[in-house]
């Protein structure tokens, strides 16, 4: 039975994301709900770095991962959104209500750890591209970006902030444009999309873990749920039309993220791998993939892509950590709240950013750190997916909105597959 807090929500006319069901017509980009922000944040600097490295190293071999991962990415994000819509609570609060305390502690710890490492990697790569076009030092750029992003997240309501940053993310479409002008081997693209080719070695398996980890990332689970209930003044809307609109929003967001993943891997395969550049160690090398369309401006366009997605993703990462910790501790949370109204929530964001800056003091390689962050996400995601799968099947919690068979199947298979990959890596030859 659904909690009393949400009784009658089926007949309440909610103003939460009131126009995301209006798919057609001008102004769509400004009307969409949290799904597109989640999809854009999925292609954060960690994602760009991972996909670029995989395309350069393996060519077209792993393109099949794009269509293979899309159903699982959609299913887990839809599940998180549905849990939040029905309960009116974020994931950590729901876990706290329905599961043992140790499960909550492990969940929040894993999310905070993975997110902080991811923020550190994203800040490092963002700073690296800034040093490409300015005389700043790497560490100064890291500190400056962290300060600016942290201040913006704390002082500006996130929906206003994200409205501007969505347009910066359009720079990623340059990878899509390269597909039209670069010397892409389209027959090999078709083979790569339709033929699953994984060698029995740690190199290949680690690459799949990284791809899956940056596509199905734990921070996106908590972010999706939190954004569904961000407008706390309105009752959750669990009408069929709104659930359907939510699913469309999530599908569009995840499809756009996965399509950009395909474009990045295909363009780096056609440009870097084809030229024998198989190990990307700097943003400058990754920028070479844009040369067929951008020429000398490739570095600038790549820098805008990294900065645009980083400016969107870092607040999502820090916000996801703050939501998880605050919900677990029972603190007031919300990016629409003023700092004076949610002091501890914003304190978590500040501490998370500070630790990420400190991690950069060890001198991590910007591009390699992105892949490491993706690997950590890949190890953390299946644990959280099993927990979410269990919650989503709880009819006492969700009532008639418990997971349908297709959702349980996809989330369950996805969790098992991602949990199996690290085990395979341990037994595979080096």
Describe it.
- By secondary structure, the protein is mostly helical.
- It has a single domain, classed as Amino acid/polyamine transporter I (Up-down Bundle).
- The chain is built from 20 helices and no strands.
- Helix 2 packs across helix 16 (298-329).
- The longest helix is centred in the first third of the chain and has 33 residues, at 101-133.
- The radius of gyration is 21 Å and the shape is globular.
- It starts with 27 loop residues before the first helix and ends with a helix.
- The model is unreliable at 1-16 and 18-31 (pLDDT under 50).
Supply the key terms.
single chain; about 425 residues; mainly alpha; Amino acid/polyamine transporter I; 20 helices; disordered N terminus
**Biggest sheet character:** none
Computed Rg: 21 Å
- At CATH level 3, the topology is Amino acid/polyamine transporter I
Q: Percent helix among the residues?
A: over 70%
What is the count of helical runs? 20
Low-confidence stretches: 1-16, 18-31
Number of domains: 1
CATH superfamily: Amino acid/polyamine transporter I
- By secondary-structure content and strand pairing, the structural class works out as mainly alpha
- Overall shape: globular
Strand content: under 5%
């Amino acid at each position: 039975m659904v909690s009393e807090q949400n009784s009658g929500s089926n007949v309440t006319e909610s103003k939460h994301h009131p126009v995301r069901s209006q798919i057609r017509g001008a102004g769509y980009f400004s009307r969409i709900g949290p799904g597109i922000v989640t999809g854009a944040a999925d292609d954060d600097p960690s994602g760009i770095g991972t996909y670029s490295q995989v395309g350069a190293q393996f060519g077209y071999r792993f393109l099949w991962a794009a269509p293979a991962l899309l159903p699982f990415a959609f299913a887990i994000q839809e599940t998180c959104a549905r849990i939040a819509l029905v309960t009116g609570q974020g994931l950590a609060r729901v876990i706290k209500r329905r599961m043992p305390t140790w499960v909550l502690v492990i969940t929040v710890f894993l999310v905070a750890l993975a997110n902080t490492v991811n923020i550190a990697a994203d800040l490092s790569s963002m700073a690296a591209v800034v040093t490409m076009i300015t005389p700043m030092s790497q560490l100064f750029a890291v500190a400056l970006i962290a300060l600016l992003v942290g201040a913006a997240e704390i002082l500006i309501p996130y929906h206003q902030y994200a409205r501007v940053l969505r347009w910066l993310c359009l720079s990623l479409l340059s990878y899509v444009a390269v597909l039209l002008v670069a010397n892409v081997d389209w027959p090999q693209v078709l083979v790569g999309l339709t033929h699953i080719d994984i060698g029995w070695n740690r190199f290949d398996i680690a690459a799949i873990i990284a791809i899956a980890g940056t596509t199905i990332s734990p921070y996106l689970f908590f972010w999706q749920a939190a954004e569904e209930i961000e407008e706390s003044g309105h009752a959750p809307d669990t009408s069929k039309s709104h659930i359907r609109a939510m699913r469309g929003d999530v599908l569009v967001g995840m499809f756009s993220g996965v399509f950009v993943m395909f474009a990045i891997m295909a363009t780096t395969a056609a440009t870097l791998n084809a030229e024998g550049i198989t190990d990307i160690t700097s943003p400058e090398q990754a920028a070479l993939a844009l040369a067929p369309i951008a020429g000398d401006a490739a570095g600038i366009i790549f820098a805008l892509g990294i900065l645009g997605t980083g400016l969107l993703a870092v607040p999502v990462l820090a916000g996801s950590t703050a939501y998880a910790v605050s919900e677990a501790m029972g603190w007031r949370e919300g990016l629409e709240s003023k700092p004076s109204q949610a002091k501890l929530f914003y304190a978590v964001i500040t501490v998370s950013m500070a630790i990420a800056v400190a991690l950069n003091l060890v001198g991590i390689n910007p591009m390699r750190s992105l892949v490491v962050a993706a690997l950590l996400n890949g190890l953390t995601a299946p644990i959280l997916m099993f927990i979410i799968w269990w919650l989503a099947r709880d009819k006492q919690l969700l009532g008639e909105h418990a997971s349908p068979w297709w959702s349980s199947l996809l989330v369950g298979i996805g969790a098992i597959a991602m949990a199996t990959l690290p085990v395979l890596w341990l037994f595979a030859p080096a």
